[in-house]
Amino acid sequence: MFRQLAARFGGPLAMAILGLLGIWLIVMVTLPQLQMIDYSLRPNLLPAQRGGPQDGWTLTNYATLFANDIHRAIFFKTLWSSVLVTLLTLAVSYPLAWYLAKVATPRQAALCILLLIIPFWINEILRTYSWFIILAFRGPLNEVLMMLGLIDRPIRFLSGDAGVMVGMVYAYILFMVFPVYNAIESLDDNQVRAARDLGAGTLRTHRRIVIPHAKPGIATGCIMTFMLAAGSYAVPALLGSPGSRWFTQIIYNWFFEGGNWNQGAAYAFLLLVLCIGFMSLVMKVFKVGLGDIAK
Amino acid sequence: MDGSVRLEEVVMRFGDFTAIDRTTLEIGSGEFFSFLGPSGCGKTTLLNMISGFLTPSEGQVLIGGEPMAGVPVNRRPTAMIFQNLALFPLMTVYENIEFGLEVRGVDRKARREASERLLALVALEGSGPKRIGELSGGQKQRVAIARALAVEPRVLLLDEPLSALDLKLRQHMRAELKAIQRKTGITFIYITHDQGEALTMSDRVAVMSAGRIQQVADPVTLYRSPATGFVAAFVGENNRLRTTLIERQAERVRLDGGALGELAGRVAAASRLARGDPAALYIRPEHLRPVEEGSAGPILAATLEAVHFEGAWVVLEARLDASGELLRVQLGHEVSRQYTDALVAGRRMRFGYDPDDAVVLPADGSPRVDEATGEVVEAGHV
């Protein structure tokens, strides 16, 4: 790698590039993670006690999660809700990606993509707040629904999981649309035409031809959306209710309210393991390798 | 319901562009019918109207006597073989062939029996479990044929399916396609820009140009009696000489070739050419032969410019002494051997032809073949 870079940019620049890469990977990624793992394996002690007889590696912090019914419930709820967010996002994104890739004219597609991207110029917190306003008990959505006569009294969108779901699907839709769009776009139009010509209807054409072809893109989108959903803090904090707490909020509490970094680190690490586990599962189910996803 | 196809007054427009001008055509059940024309002539548009991928702007398509208006692609009794074949790369050969049957709810056992039978028909026994990527070009071709035949179409539409193959394989597949068509009795509608394919396989050929059908005829008639200047120039090679009609006796005409002197040729019985009309005389390179001075019949004196040895024949490029036009002559082995020493550039030669082989068409607006590119240049409608 050094030789290739040196041939292209010259020795000093190549050294600088590799040096920066190394610093980034080691100092900014690997070491902090190792530090976190170290934290998570030690008890929470007063500064004076550190290095004393009570200090040492233990799994107590990890055991806490399994001992605490509420935290465990929230952990699994976060897992389940993130899966749900992922499926909802896929359900919304797939037709959109299909439309962009195969139905729309290039002009329509460009316009549509622009309209999708513009809201993302705005900060995530602000976007989430705007949903907070839209979904509020006396907010515009309830007003419109009542005006149309669809409901008699306002709905409390923000008291259950609905608000969090809507907010997350909206926040992460691009991470699903683009990989799926890219995958569908590379499908030869004649494949779809051939399936139609052989008698297949719309559903079967998608199930047998388009989806198998778009599988790596769908897997990529699902993994990204799941990771972002499971690790989201702002959306559940703003649009959630006490009944729909996210595991990230518990971690936050350990760090910044409880002041127990060791416990927080253990929880954060468990969340990481969960995400990696989910990713491997999805890759296994979709039969895709890391190479397909990196495309 | 049989496999006949009828196009009734069909017109296809894309915006301001007319891809297919008002066309009426009847294709018989069990016929091997080809549309032949240069790219952009509208032949693929016609095919797409029959398969249902396009809806005609006007007129209608009937298959087996039934109007196809409103019948979607997946409900038509047609199957298409695509130019790039469009096999499903993530499926096995079996799955590809059985796809259409699976759609129709045929059970697994019957599907497998059908695909085995079709694999035998296209001589691919034992390839069922293979992936598409493991097949050679010719094998893919066969799978595409089997997949299309699996749905038992009444009409099989073929969109230049051989264009991706190399020459030898292409010639082999021509014979095979023709054999399969005979065996199955299905109507084949074949699209190609390759006249060799159209002439060797078809029962009838429609030559198309700029959205119009120029002539529909069996290959021999097409070659021997082209109806328009476009067909004369596009199918096979032709020398075109400008003349004026002097005298007509039924199908035989005497022509004034200007500086070339008196020439002769043959007109179609239905032709309205009359005395004094400008006429184009078409003489195929292979119908010209060297003759001695003073021999009977029309004689063209020319100076050789180039001699191309092409194996089975020799092609001469000669400049007509009287008019300066270029004449192409193709000599078979038997003839060229007699003239071995004479066939050098700069040599003056005389060429004669049988007037029965030379077709005469009205001269106005006839297209010609561009000498540099070999493309047919159209000069207005014929």
Structure, explained:
The complex is a heterodimer of chains A (295) and B (382). Chain A has 295 residues and is mostly helical. Chain A is built from 14 helices and no strands. In chain A, α12 (247-257) packs antiparallel against α13 (261-285). The longest helix of chain A has 35 residues, at 69-103. The model of chain B is unreliable at 378-382 (pLDDT under 50). The interface between A and B is medium-sized, with 17 and 23 residues.
Jot down its keywords.
heterodimer; A: 295 residues; mainly alpha; 0% strand; B: 382 residues; alpha+beta; 6-stranded mixed sheet; 5-stranded antiparallel sheet; 9 helices
Brief sketch in words of this structure:
Chain A is an all-alpha fold. Chain A has helices at 2-9, 11-40, 60-67, 69-103, 106-117, 124-134, 140-147, 162-185, 189-197, 202-230, 234-239, 247-257, 261-285, 290-294.
Oligomer category: heterodimer
Question: Ranges of chain A with pLDDT <50 over ≥5 residues?
Answer: none
- Give the termini distance of chain A in whole angstroms: 20 Å
Shape of chain B: elongated
Biggest sheet of chain B, strands in spatial order?
6-7-8-3-9-10
Write down the overall geometry of chain A: globular
Q: Over all CA atoms, what is the radius of gyration of chain B?
A: 24 Å
Structural class of chain A: mainly alpha
Average pLDDT across residues of chain A?
86
Sheet with most strands of chain A: none
Distinct helical segment count of chain B: 9
Average pLDDT metric of chain B: 87
